[in-house]
Predict the structure.
Amino acid sequence: MASETENPNRRDFLTVAATSWVAVGAAATLWPLIQQMNPDASTQALASVEVDLSPVKEGQAITVMWRGKPVFVRNRTKAEIEQANKVPVTDLIDRYARNDAIAETAAASDQNRVKKDHENWLVMVGICTHLGCIPKGQALGDNKGDYGGWFCPCHGSHYDTAGRIRKGPAPENFKVPTYQFVSDTKIKIG
Amino acid sequence: MANHEDTFKPGSRLSQWLDERLPVARMMHGQFVDFPTPRNLNYLWTFGGILTFCLGVQIITGIVLAMHYVPNDKMAFDSIEHIRRNVNYGWLLRSVHAVGASMFFVAVYVHIARGLYYGSYKAPREILWILGVIIYLLMMATGFLGYTLPWGQMSFWGVTVITNLFSSLDAVIPGLGTAIVTWLWGGYSVSGVTLNRFFSLHYLLPFVIAGVVGLHIWALHVVGQNNPIGIDIKTKSDSVPMAPYAVMKDLFALFVFIMLFAWFVFFAPDYLGHADNYVEANPLVTPPHIVPEWYYLPFYAILRAVPSKLGGVVLMFGSILVLLFLPWLDTSRVRSARYRPIFKWLLVLFFFTFLALGYLGSKPAEGIYVLWAQIFTAYYFLFFLVLMPIVGVLETPSPMPRSITESVLGDRAAPAKS
Ligand code: HEM
Ligand code: FES
């Protein structure tokens, strides 16, 4: 006992060391319990999907599922592309391209949201960036909003013909996933 | 309140034997028979008992529903129909559980409003009040998780929109919100994986609630009940023993409540729900107008009143969390609004605001509805954060009776005959 009062630092050190190890152990135990909730191997394995574009005529759109999410594929008309090109990037709510294939800071010009020489094809994750509803605008009779692209009825977000947010509570443009043209009429998403 | 008379007498040799080893019967007798209750309680004080009943009903019907329900995205929707059509008395059990959730919230709103009006959150009942707010939050979580289970269109899109609220954190730390949402979903969208974990948690939380209710009642029995005049029990004539007085009153109110409950169960089991939830979940089609269950509508209105995504989420959560601080935001030393001429009307206006927000939450977020939602949201916060602290200092309380006995008997309150 005498040594305890003579040598308080040694006792403090032991207490701190022991407590730290308990904390490390607790964290290591907790980790698997938390991590099990993240996407499992089978969910991650469904990562890519091929889409045949040949049946989609100019002015039409299709929706395909990728990673459990709808992906909008639209074959845009000349007028729609022109309309999207005319908008100065400074007029946009979200000035970033949100295209997974290019730099995060790239500007939201129409070219930056499509593939070169395939400018008519607009491929985007069809989920409203506000709170995740699926906007209208894919079917011919749908309300396409004030900017001729898509309209989310949940809380009123309007997207233009390049899938960029123009009005409403959504903060970002539709996200463009990574995809490649495997042939002229086929893309691979993911 | 701990030091009241103990009238417990073990009835048999067995109960005497038990009393010497584990005096649980003595404790229950002390807390629920002898326990002194203010003699002037009105019917608003019967809702605590009603709430306990509701929790019991949800747990019992829930456990039996879980014997037939299948938490799988391919089968969940059909299993509910199976419960309603094929399982013996399944139609009844399912209706009682679904209507029960609504009745639970009716009762909790009355209970909370009672606390606000009579100042039950003030010293020494701060912990009691905070435990109550925690129970309310847990109830909202449980109801939300439960509403996912039928896997209808509203279930699916309700979950999508509400879990996406967390993605607003991307505006604080890029990527954080998305990481949380993916973790909650167990995938890149709401799916059967999400349904399965929500079922697990929906089964768990009611038992957590039961635990917190235990603490809530414990805290209540340490400080004693508040009452309509907000003055403590001082003499013996201010109180009556809980049994039979308060117990009988509670039971009478409970039976009236059960009649209303039964009316919904038998005559309008789907009235409080939404027709779209009888359409199976479809991840490709969002219903044109998403609304949460009625009991969340005021908060949904606050969420949508703010034109910024993060701002809406912060105010929505803030509108509930602010309740935790009421004991310190209210600066008045008078408990009951009955003797607070200014505060009383501000509070009535607050109740109206809450109902109005509920109405607006059920309307589409456009035009004039948004403007009104913004006005009422402003009053919601103004009331708690500005008016409550200021009025407490400025207001002159109206004259109060000196004791509970005097408030009940008036002049007949002869010197207390304890
Ligand atoms: C705090 C208590 C509880 C609340 C507020 C609550 C709320 C709800 C709600 C709102 C639903 C959806 C009803 C519908 O619209 O169809 C539901 C469904 C369900 N709950 Fe609960 N619940 C509670 C306790 C429990 C417990 C303790 C269990 C089981 C141990 C349980 C099991 C279920 C099951 C299996 C369903 C799906 C069947 C159905 O939808 O009717 N619940 N719950
Ligand atoms: S989810 Fe699209 S506007 Fe809210």
Helices of chain A lie at 2-6, 8-35, 41-45, 78-86. Chain A touches chain B through 25 residues (CB under 8 Å). Chain A has two domains: 9-38, 44-189. Residues 49 and 89 of chain A are 31 Å apart (CA to CA).
